[in-house]
Amino acid sequence: MDYNNYFGFSVTPFSSSPDERFYYNSPYHSKAILKLLHVVEQRRGLAVLIGDIGTGKTMISRKLLDYFSSKSDIFEVSLLVIIHSEITAGWLLKKIAIQLGAKVETDNKIDIIGHVYKQLSYLKEKKKRPVVMIDEANMLKSREIMEELRGLLNIVDNDGHLITFLLFGMPETEENLKLDPPLYERISVKLTLNPLDLESTIGYINHRLKVAGREQPLFSDGALQMVYNFSKGKPRLINTICDNALLEAFIEKKKFIDEDIIKQISSDMGLK
Question: Which site among 117, 120, 131, 172 is 20 to 30 Å from 77 CA-CA?
Answer without folding.
Answer: 172
